[in-house]
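Please decode residue identities from the backbone states below.
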């Protein structure tokens, strides 16, 4: 278990195979889930994403403000026949919602997993309900599918999102109904839909129904090329 302070927030890292949630931490996450998602039973959500037997490993970062848990980022790692699939879930109390909070944790743990077994293909392949979350990843990562101007491998979307829907904008099977939605206010929705930030505009174009429980399916390859190109992207900013 690791405990650190970064910028104005502290954080606590947990690994399921070593140390997992206490009752108090679980209760705090339940409250965050209730205010973050519409039409979701928090206990059912916790059982599905935090307790189910499917993943081979889980990593969790709890974000703290004066020792209060105000958000989390959960990563799951599942080995398939010839690759490792990484999925994520994240949520914050409304006044602490800043998409960049989760990027460093997600990318660091993904690369750590790849470095342990670089002969295996690793893919971050998961749904994103939030345009802000998509922006946090897309603006900081070199290779992201789908992304404006990048050619996406259709066969991977057919493989990882077989029941998904095609977007009318890019003809890619990158949409999926998740039966929940981010609990945005009408003002927040209007701000997102009128945003001039490139990544948010792109997200809203290819997934205009994100407020009705439609998520964007995003795939990020985790490999040496990604590491080098992402490092260059940050160094040249």
């Amino acid at each position: 278990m690791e405990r650190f302070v970064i910028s104005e927030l502290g954080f606590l890292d947990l690994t399921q195979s070593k140390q997992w949630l206490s009752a108090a931490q679980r209760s705090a996450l339940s409250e965050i889930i209730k205010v973050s998602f519409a039409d979701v039973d928090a206990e059912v959500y916790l059982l599905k994403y935090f307790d189910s037997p499917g993943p081979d490993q889980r990593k969790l970062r709890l974000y703290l403000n004066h020792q209060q848990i105000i958000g989390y980022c959960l990563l799951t790692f599942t080995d398939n026949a010839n690759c490792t699939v990484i999925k994520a879930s994240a949520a914050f109390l409304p006044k602490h919602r800043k998409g960049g909070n989760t990027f460093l944790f997600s990318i660091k743990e993904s690369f750590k997993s790849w470095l342990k077994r670089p002969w295996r293909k690793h893919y971050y392949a998961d749904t994103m309900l939030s345009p802000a979350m998509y922006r946090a990843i897309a603006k900081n990562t070199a290779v992201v599918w789908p992304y404006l101007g990048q050619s996406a491998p259709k066969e991977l979307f057919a493989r990882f999102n077989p029941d998904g829907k095609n977007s009318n904008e890019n003809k890619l099977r990158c949409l999926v109904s998740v039966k929940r939605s981010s609990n945005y206010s009408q003002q927040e929705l209007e701000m997102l839909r009128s945003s001039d930030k490139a990544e948010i505009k792109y997200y809203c174009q290819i997934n205009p129904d994100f407020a009705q429980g439609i998520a964007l399916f995003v795939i990020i390859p985790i490999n040496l090329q990604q590491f080098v190109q992402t490092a260059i992207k940050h160094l040249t900013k």
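Observation: The longest strand covers residues 68-79.
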